[in-house]
TrEMBL record:
The chain crosses the membrane at residues 12-31, 43-63, 75-95, 107-126, 138-158, 178-200. This is FAR-17a/AIG1-like protein. Keywords: Membrane, Transmembrane, Transmembrane helix. InterPro entries: Pr6Pr-like. It comes from Microbacterium pygmaeum. It comes from the Bacteria.
């Protein structure tokens, strides 16, 4: 009971923090500054924080109603949210610490790039998934970032707007350098996805809450 209540409070708090930070940046800073909604959601940081906030919110509501993860799809989406938010924190710390990302408000920057990645990891480790995560699921987690990357490069070539400097050939020294950045990040994302899957399965296997799932490969 205590663990259930703690999970509900934890997820509601960080859902409000994440969605509140993104909402503040959008409605108080971005739009009044004359920038578009499309540009705002061209940042993977904003997409990842919204996803995790929604996942936390839905998870808290389900627990409050006495429900848990109803299917392997629920665990898969939750795992994807964790992978993306942790990836956001790592990439920001490694590559973007000194970059100006759309006039990001300092407190929003801290929430989106530091606080929420930590919250995502804590939630995954303390309350591991009830369903076993298949290897194929972890590989599917790479699809959205890959599509996002291609879309950002195409849109940047057409409009001149690149959300991140490592996507901009004029900043990093041409498309070959852009390709190297993208490949390196894809490899890192794959390693992270496999690590998140392993941690969830290992910790979940020790939990008495583990549900028997249909075997997958």
């Amino acid at each position: 009971m205590i663990s259930r209540i703690a999970s509900i409070v934890f997820r509601l708090f960080f859902a409000a923090l994440s969605l509140g930070a993104v909402g503040w940046q959008l409605f108080a800073i971005h739009l009044p500054g004359g920038q578009s909604v499309v540009d705002f959601f061209s940042y993977f940081t904003n997409l990842g924080n919204v996803l995790l906030g929604v996942v936390f919110l839905i998870g808290a509501v389900r627990l409050a109603r006495g429900r848990t993860e109803a299917s392997t799809a629920d665990a898969a989406v939750r795992g994807a949210a964790v992978v993306y938010i942790v990836f956001i924190g790592i990439v920001y710390s490694a590559l973007l610490g000194d970059a100006q990302l759309g006039g990001l408000t300092p407190w929003v920057n801290v929430v989106c790039h530091f606080v929420m990645p930590i919250a995502g990891v804590v939630d995954w480790l303390v309350w591991p998934p009830l369903r076993r995560i298949a290897l194929s699921t972890a590989l599917w987690w790479l699809v959205f970032p890959a599509v996002y990357t291609v879309g950002s490069l195409v849109r940047g070539a057409v409009t001149g707007f690149y959300p991140y400097p490592f996507f901009h050939p004029g900043v990093v020294g041409g498309y070959p350098r852009v390709a190297l950045y993208c490949i390196a990040m894809l490899v890192g994302l794959l390693a992270l996805a496999l690590l998140v899957r392993w941690a969830g399965n290992a910790l979940g296997a020790r939990s008495e809450r583990r549900l028997e799932a249909v075997p997958q490969c």
